[in-house]
Amino acid sequence: MFNLIKKDVFIQKTQIGFLVPLIMIFAIFIKDIHPSFIFLMAAVFIPLNAYIFDQQSKTNIFLNSLPYTRKEIVAARYIGAIVYMILSVILAGVILYVFQFDYTMRDMAIAAGLFCLIAAFAFPLFYFLKAEYIFIAAFIGFIASTIILPPVFRFLADHLTTITDFITSLSTSILYLSGAVIAIGLYLISWVVSQFIYQRKVF
Length: 203
Prior knowledge:
85% of the residues lie in helices and 0% in strands.
C-alpha cells in the first residue's frame, strides 16, 4: 500500500514543481488574502491532481492488474490524501514564514477541515464520474450554492433562532472541535462510499 501512496508524487513531479512558486506568489504579492485559502490550495493540490491524472491516463486499469485489492487501492488514496495534505500544509507554512506572511495554527486547522469536507464529497464523485464531468458538476454545484444557500441561511436565521442562539453561545473551542469531528466523520463516510462504488466499478 505504501507504494500506492508514493506513486502520486512520482507521477506529479512536474505539477508539484509549480506548487512552491505558486505559494511564493501569494505570499509576496497578495498580502490581503486569507492564509487559510493558501493552506487549502496547497492541501488539495496533490490529491486532486492525482485523481485527475489517474482518470486521464486510465491508471486504475493498471492498478487492478497488480496484486492489490480494490479495498487497498481506495485506502491508499484516502490515507495518501491526508499524508500529502499534512505535508503540503507544512510546506506552505514554512514558505509563508520565510516571507513573513502572518498566519496562525488556527488557519492551518481550518484549511485541513475544509480539505476533509471537499475531499469527502469530491472523491466518491471521481470514482463515479469521469474527470471531465467532475468540473461540470463542480461548476453547477457552485452556481447552485450561490443561488440557494443565501436564502436558506436567511430563513434559518429568521425562523430557527433557538438553534442559531445556541450555536452563537458556544465557545470557539467547542465550535472548532465540533467542526473537526464533522469533517473527519464525513471523510470516513466518504471512504466507505468510495469503497462501495469502486468494488462495483468495471474497467
